[in-house]
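Q: Hi! First time asking for a complex rather than a single chain. Here are the components, and I think there are two in total. Is that enough to go on?
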Amino acid sequence: GAVVSQHPSRVICKSGTSVKIECRSLDFQATTMFWYRQFPKQSLMLMATSNEGSKATYEQGVEKDKFLINHASLTLSTLTVTSAHPEDSSFYICSATEEGQGVLGGTQYFGPGTRLTVL
Amino acid sequence: DAKTTQPNSMESNEEEPVHLPCNHSTISGTDYIHWYRQLPSQGPEYVIHGLTSNVNNRMASLAIAEDRKSSTLILHRATLRDAAVYYCILRDLNRDDKIIFGKGTRLHILP
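A: Yes, that's all I need. Here is the structure of the assembled complex.
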């Protein structure tokens, strides 16, 4: 099946620094990718929809200036957490749908996640 | 979006079948029923999906009620590696592609 990778898998940073997380679809093209955040013992929370070649669509309550999303190609989306603070510590997960499948029962493929710890 | 209701947690013995229920009484005619699962410290993975008919794949079976207001994910022979949170999700044919996760069912497998 299709594979989505994330890099890095784990990152620790100091408060006030920015962190970039990459999400790649390895063997398929994805016009749309999604970014989620998950706190311990909680469900995944959708942050934004990343569209190739256009601006991301953010969910209500997610600060677009803090969580910068760039989807420069059909296989790569990046999430940058700017001026990170301890409350941004979380598990960040991306997903992608294979081009052409759409929502007609199409499967979403999830990355393995990136654990961010802000000191 | 149509909502799903799942038990918070379930337990099962290893090597026995597991039936994970999901209620979706407000399902619309264009909603597919999807199941994903999330193993500890990993991203979710697709398990199975269906529209009206029961479905089988190598991971599980999906039994859909005739009125489509409920469904059951069936793991035929649970192993310790099946311990995960299982999410039942409705996805509309005509809407965008995003998935909104509920709380899911945390499945514990007893050795």
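A: Chain A touches chain B through 29 residues (CB under 8 Å). Let me know if you'd like any chain examined more closely.
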